[in-house]
UniProtKB/TrEMBL annotation:
Parts of the chain that traverse the membrane: 12-32, 72-94, 147-165, 177-196, 216-238, 245-265, 271-288, 295-317
Domain of life: Bacteria
Protein name: EpsG family protein
Keywords (A to Z) from UniProt: Membrane, Transmembrane, Transmembrane helix
InterPro entries linked: EpsG-like
Length: 318
């Protein structure tokens, strides 16, 4: 551990972390007229359409029929669940400092809007960093996926990433690394044919709509590529940092890159990485080795965080 950063690796008490993250509720709960998903969630909750995943609908039913919550209280209860997981996931001073601006930047377009996937991402990240037994991780993925089906992919990433051999990510191990590159190109070109494959299924109307088959933006693609390169360099030239967390980061970014022809899918994987990122960076920054690459990774992270501050609009009740 780097002595000068030892203080930042200290774990804060849970209740104190909860108190620190509490003001974020002010950002996440914003007026519904500015919430893009309000028109979908409000009628489903009010009239019990059961249009979404079973666990989400069971939770909705419990809040509506048993607790007699109106929609505002129901929505706020999901924000409370997110708050609980913020405090469970980001434990050290370094992680909290890194997570706060990222959460605020993503508060209204992600945590306050895409609430099902946001909560599932938090659950999967918690499982990845805090649960050691594979069977419990698997069960957590199953439960989370019944709240949003997007949990299947990111849960699978968290389960298999730690089992990937180190040699696949080490630049001077030529054969495994070339195998990884070939797999990347194969997967990328396979996803280029996504339009044709979907046209053969009952979801062929998505092809004409273009809603799910647009490619990831250039800015997002560059962020994924540069982050992946820096993680691979850290992994290659700093043996102290060869651990499960950095593997999860690299595999997540690889999957985001594989699926980049499909913005909706690649974007969801990237959002999971953004939730996981403060944990990964917080771990890397207090570990010796690869300092130049780590500083570059931190600078890239800060650029993303402040980019969100710049481009996003924020709305409040008062």
């Amino acid at each position: 551990m780097i002595k000068s950063l030892r203080f930042f690796s200290l774990e804060l008490p849970y209740l104190f972390r909860l108190f620190i993250f509490m003001p974020i509720l002010y950002f996440i709960n914003f007026p519904f007229e500015y919430n893009a998903d309000y028109g979908n969630y409000f009628p489903d909750y009010t009239y019990g359409y059961f249009a979404y995943e079973p666990l989400y609908e069971w939770y909705s039913y419990f809040c509506r029929e048993i607790l007699d919550f109106d929609f505002f209280l129901f929505w706020f209860s999901i924000s409370i669940l997110e708050l609980i997981f913020f405090a469970l996931i980001y434990k050290t001073i370094m992680q909290v400092v890194l997570a706060l601006p990222s959460i605020i930047g993503m508060s209204q377009f992600f945590y306050g809007t895409q609430v099902r996937y946001a909560l599932v991402s938090l659950v999967i990240v918690y499982s990845a960093v805090s649960i050691s037994k594979p069977i419990l991780k698997f069960l957590t993925t199953v439960v989370a996926s019944s709240f949003h089906y997007g949990g299947v992919l990111i849960g699978f990433i968290s389960l298999i990433a730690g089992k990937v051999a180190d040699s696949f990510f080490v630049l001077n191990r030529l054969r495994p690394f070339l195998t990884l590159i070939l797999l990347l190109f194969f997967a990328y070109f396979a996803f280029q044919q996504f339009d044709y494959l979907v046209s053969l299924t009952r979801f062929n109307y998505y092809v004409d709509s273009g809603e799910y088959v647009e490619r990831i933006s250039l800015v997002s693609l560059l962020y994924v590529i540069f982050s992946l390169i820096l993680l691979i360099l850290i992994f290659t030239y700093s043996k102290e940092n060869r651990n499960r967390l950095i593997k999860i980061g690299m595999v997540t970014l690889l999957v985001s890159l594989f699926t980049s022809p499909i913005a909706a899918l690649s974007g969801r994987v990237s959002l999971f990485y953004f939730v996981f990122e403060p944990v990964l960076l917080g771990s890397l920054m207090v570990t010796a080795g690869g300092r130049v690459f780590k500083v570059a990774l931190l600078m890239l992270y800060l650029v993303r965080v402040f980019f969100y501050f710049y481009v996003n609009s924020y709305y409040f009740y008062w």
